[in-house]
Every structure is written in C-alpha cells, then in structure tokens.
Amino acid sequence: MKVQFNIEYQTVFGEDLFIDITSFDGKNSATKEAVKMTTTDGRHWSVAINIASKAVKQIDYFYSVSRNGTMIRHEWIVVPHRLEFVGNQTTTYITSDYWLDIPENSQLYSSAFTDCISNRKQMTSSVSDFKHTLRLKVRAPQLNKKERLAMIGDVKALGEWDIIRAVPMIEHSHNEWVATIDVDKVERPIMEFKFVIQEEGNDENPVWENGANRVVDVPSLGANEVDVREMEPAVFQLKPWRGAGTVIPVFSLRSKTSFGIGDFGDLKKMIDWVAMTRQQVLQILPINDTTITHSWADSYPYNSISIYALHPQYADLNALPRLKDEALITRYEALQAELNVLPQIDYERVNEAKIAYLVDLYKQEGKLMMATKEFKSFFDANKKWLVPYAAFCYYRDKYGTSKFSEWPDHHSFDESEYKSMSKSTTKLYKEVAIHYFIQFILDAQMREANNYARKNGVVLKGDIPIGISRDSVEAWIEPFYFNLNVQAGAPPDAFSTNGQNWGFPTYNWNVMLKDNCSWWVNRFRKMSQYFDAYRIDHILGFFRIWEIPADAIHGLLGQFSPGLPMTPQEIDSYGICFREDLFTEPFITDWVIDKIFGPWADKVRVTYLDHTHHDMYRMKPEFDTQRKVEAVFNGKNSGDDVWIRDGLYALISDVLFVRDHQHPDTYHPRIGVQLDFIFQALNDVEKYNFNRLYNDYFYRRHNQFWYHEAMKKLPLLTQATRMLVCGEDLGMVPDCVPWVMNELRILSLEIQSMPKDSHERFGHLSRYPYRSVSTISTHDMPTLREWWKEDRQRTQDYYNTMLHHGDDAPENLPGWLAKEIVSRQLACPSMLCLLSLQDWLSIDESVRLADLKGERINIPANPRHYWRYRMHLNIEDLVSNTLLNDTITILIQQSERQ
Asked: How much is the pTM?
C-alpha cells in the first residue's frame, strides 16, 4: 500500500522537511520512522512511502523542519495528524495536510477536557468498499459531551442542505472528526458545505459554523485510491468554557474513615462533593514521598525523596484486605479513632501507625499480592525508578539517615545491586520488597481515584514541585543532573523580606538538555497516570532560578541562574566607581553596629568582629558566613541570642554586589540592597546611578536571554503529555514570562491581592486573561478571612475600591460579604476559578472554622513550618450540608461556569 504525503510549507535555503511516522497495528504495537521529503520550489513538499504490512491499521505523524541535520522546528505533537486505512481494497492514499502549530484553544485538546469534561469516546472508522474515496478531516474542539459533528452541503452525498440528511462524522482522534464520501456519488466537480454541531436527540436544531461555505474540488481518482483532505479547524460562535473548582491538600482531607490524615479513599469522597456542587476541578498539593527524617519535619510536601514514589501516608487502609489478627485490628481501630478526632495532623504518630499497618499487611498478604499479574505488570513498568527508590529507603533506615554522603557505603547505586533487587529470589529483593508492595498499593489507589474523577466529570489537578531534596533518590543516582553545591530559593517578596531558601539543589540544565530533558519528560509522563491537569510550581524556575551559596541562610545573597553578570567595566559605565573590597564585602561600621545591635553592640564588636581601620570592621573568619553563625547559635533560643544571630545574618548580607558563582570576576547587584546600610552610605549621585544599573539589570537586561532559556525547556515538557498546563507565575516576574506562557498556552495564576501590574494595589477581576486560573488565596497565603484581619487600612481600601461599599469595612469578614467576594471571583473571565476549601466555607458562618488562624496551611517565612492543617468537618458532613452545597451550586450557575 502506498501513501503519498503532501504539505505546503515555506522554507528557506538549507532547510528540509521531514515526516515522523508512528505506525499502529491492531494490537496497538507501534513502529517509528522518519522520512525526508522533497520539493521543487521550497514551498510544496511531498514524499511517498510504502506500507508493506497489512496489519497496520493507522499511522500518526507530524512534520518537522531540519537545518544542517538538526531539527529546528516541529509541529504541535500533542495531538498529531492521524491517517486511518479504511479502504477495503485501497492501494493508494493521498494526503493533503496543513502545518499544525499549537492552537489558541489547545486546552480543549488536553485530557482534562477530552477525558473528563467532554469525555466523548473516540471511534475507529468503518471499512469502506468505495472505489474512489474522499476523506475529509476537521478539528472541532468546542463540542461538549453530548454533541457530535456533521456535514451538510449542496450535493446529494451531503444532504443537499437538508439538516435531517446531514452526514454524521466520526471522532477518530481527540477533537478530530472524519467523514468518508463516495466520489462516484458526487454529481458536481465542486462541493460547498458547512460543518454543524448536533446534540444527541436533537438533529433539527444544529449549531452552524461561522463564515462562508467551505468549498472542495472533487478529486479525479484512480481505482482504489483515497484522497484525504485536512481542513482548517471548524469554529463555532459559542461561549468559551469556564469552570470552577476546589483546592485542598490530600493530607488535609477528613472523613469518618480516615486514619488521622487524608488518604486516596478520602480523595474519592471529595470528588463526590466537587461533582455534586457542579464544580469541575479538584486541585491538590504534591503527593510524593517526603520521608527523610521520620519526623514532623517531613510534613513539607515540596521536599520529596522521589519524583515518582507516592507517600505511604496516603494509603487508604479501608480499601485493603482486612487483617486476620483480631488483637491487631482492635489496636489499630482504637488508634485510628484517637488520631482521627485530633484537630490537626499528628504527623509522626500517623505515619508510624500507617507504616506499621502496611508492614503487618505485607506479612499477611504480600506473597499472594506480589505473585499477581497486576503486581508483575506494575513492577515491570516502574522498576527503573522503583528499585533505586526501594534501595534508598532501605539504606536510609539501615543507616539512620537519608544523607547518603554519610552512609558508610553505597554512595552510589550500581548495576549489580539493581539486578539483585529486581529478582524475587534474592536476599536483597526480600529486604526491599516491602517498598515495592506499598508503592503497588498506592499506585493502584491513586489511579482508581483519577478514573473515578473522570467518570464523575471532575478534573484532578496535581502539583509538580520545582525542586527536589538534596537527600533524595534522584540526587543519589543521578547527581550529574543537579548543582549540589548551591541552594535554590526565591528573591524577597511579599512572603519573605529576606528571600526564601528552599535548600534544594538547582538543575544542571546544560546536562539535562543534552538528552532533551528526559528526566523531566519521564516525570511528567508518570504524573499523567494520576492527573489530567497540573500546576508547575514556581514556573519562573524554568526561565531562571534564584541560586544561593551553600554557606548562606537567607536568600539575599543569591543570584539568578542562568544570568548575565556584570564586569567591573560595565559597572563603571553607569557612573559607579567599582571597588571590590568596598562593594562585595559586608559593610560594617560603628554606626551600623550600634543601629542593629543596640545594647549588645560592644559584645558583638569584641566577639564576632575584627577592627580594620577607622570605624570599619570585618567578620572574624570563624563567623564570616551565615552557616558558621547558624552553627554557633545552634540550640540557643533565648531572645538575646536570636537577636544577635539575626543581626549577624544581616551584617553578612549587607553588600552592594555579589560575586558570580561560576565567573568570580563578574558581579550581580544584590537584590533589595536599597533597604540596607551600604546603600544608605552612598551619596545621592551614587544612589541614582546604582538604581539605574539595578533596574536595567533586574527588569531589562535578561528578557530575551531568559525567553530563549525557557523555550529550550518548556516546549519539551508541555508537549510530553496531554495534561492541562498551569503555571504558578508569582513573585518577581520578568516581562518575558507572559511571552512564553502565551506562546505555549500555559494558564497563568491570578490573585487579586497580588496584581501583576505593579502600579495597582489590587487586581481588576474583569481584566484577567481567559487563559488563567483565578483564586483568592494559595496554600502559601493567609485565607480570605485571615487576610481580611491582617491590615485594617488595606482591607478598607479593598472594601471601598474593589467591592464598592461606601461605609466602614467590618472588622471580621461576615459570611454575606465573603459570599460576595466569592461571587465576584467566579464572575471573572478566567477559564478556571479555583478556591481553597477554606475560602468556599467562609461564605457560611455556621460551617466555617471558628478559629480563622487554624485555616492556615503554610507560612513561607518560617522554613520549619509544620504542615498539619485538616478540615474541621468530615467530608460526609460536607456532602450532607444541603444549604451550603445549594448556595455554592447557585453561585457557580449564576457565574455561567459550566
């Protein structure tokens, strides 16, 4: 069988077009090949291939452009071209394609829409016996669950404009519809037609596509030839889809059957509540294993030890086989009842109990469960990451630390260990098999939760952390992907005046890009097994990351990486006479010491400083980094000690420029230095010139550079799966970030109290872009009610200017006003309006938590925050609260969110 591919694409000298083809047989086995095309004019490209195997039922393919043997551009590959072989006796297929760039409405092709919201079943075209066949393909992503596409035109084969005789089309690929026409029954050389949307059971009132009639020349074909025409997408005058949803961590869920913490069974119950209130999205926080110390410090969900493994704490014990030991059952039931009534999570006791339960279950059921076909299939599909993860957990517990550099051996994971731990007959396998068993259970339960969400029309949205723990499986087995000698964080912002130091290593992007970011691609593909949408945590990190020296505690001494540091000559060109000793060393004078330390000033001079000249000092070598200071004050928690420690931190970060980590003869202006003493010591001209340099450096110098950095990485990741992509683009956002997010159709995050426009105090909801997620608060922020209480003047301004009330704002946020704020959020143009459960509950004073401070999930300024928030009511009670649920449903209906 011969296939002739044709496409019109304008190239320049030196460029070639290729077609990448994946062939599928009836058993879903795939083979791939790349074929070079030919042209006579640089615009019209074609190539013919022969398909020898009759088993091939369809091919998917995409076009790419190559220059000097290197691919420089390719089509949108999330939903590629598809060609089905439907002719019973067909010998030749002739395709006419057009180049597919990422469409403006690409979100409608995501699994969030195709598998959850519209959830239409794709079909394979029936076999045709026509001798001369015309196949018309068109993409029509706007249809909902109960609609289908049809064609109607001016020839008998297309119903002669009689809507009752419209030709139904088949959705053979996501949002792509196809119709097969017998050319011998078309009586004219040219056909005019339109595409229409027909609703199930209502064929007589279709929605007609916009614009003039489509026109197609009827082809002149040889015997048993099929002409396949790809049409421009159908566009209908329909309102854009908008949806609502809830954000809550899994650990925060509470039900009558929980074990002191939310689990994957509770997730299904929460899906029920979301669906019954006409919401469409349930967003959660990361669910990966964070077990580093076996203490409450592991409660931080963004510090995982594996990018693949799920946290054992989320196992739904109720869905597992029952223990046979009645004494054990009695003990666990008593412990469950005790832990489940606690107002917050007792992280350590919960995890100790659940792990113990799973170990007891393993002793009882492990051998049988791990002999099943399901387990063997899971192990084979996941062993590349599962075996190193199990080994890491085994050595972590054996040696009492996750810091693999402190292990007496096994500083790396070799192939012999991998093979031994992969064979069920070896001693090593038996020692680590408990971790295989637990991950098998978690994987099955999380997949079931996602399938349950799909069946209920709910999009389950996950969260991909920007960082990994330096004490993690990936850092252990793939250290070449990371810069382990520095720390990732964030520059100063509304959350933290000293910046944030997350402690994560940064990514070695030069190495990652050599294999097309396979590390990230595999991570995203694994996540797509559990979710249909995801939030990229700190998407700015794909443009540049805030990189902090290993010896720093605060984020102030960081620099953007990659970045464009400045030479001394460049600094001089701004009218600043660069002096390395003055500008890169802490500025410590008598007046600074007195200002910071007050009554402790003399003690600080004697103990921690060396006098240099006049009234100038420097840190003594044993105290000249923040890490050294931290070590000295470790365990000293008195008010005086904390004051002196924090003052020394401030002294060390009081520099005008920081030295570049890779090129020590170049420099970066220190972030936020205008609030420090060294800046105050400059004269007015120097301040003016430094501010010019500062603004150019942080807001103009890097825009094109960071744009290209992001475009090296993000297209590879966003096209790795069909999940809906959302980005958390908060903080110090360069101008190039919205350029990239718009180009890749990534949804932005919009928060009214944190407007993107620096000239506005509050964001204007009506100006939000459609391709965005609107919310009131995130897990890093105070909830609506707590925010209302924080700053009286700010609240009054919001009450008057945004809510348009003329009187004094209530001191405490009443339910009726919270309801108005929620209603306004829902009415905004954003595609998604996702509110925290706490903010949803704020509208009902009889339901919401009395202690508003108890609603807080995280305080970013506190690096040792205990993540232990739980719902104060059971999901079962939430589901049965008819008044609240009816109110939420009505609010969503009134906002015309579907």
From this structure: 0.94
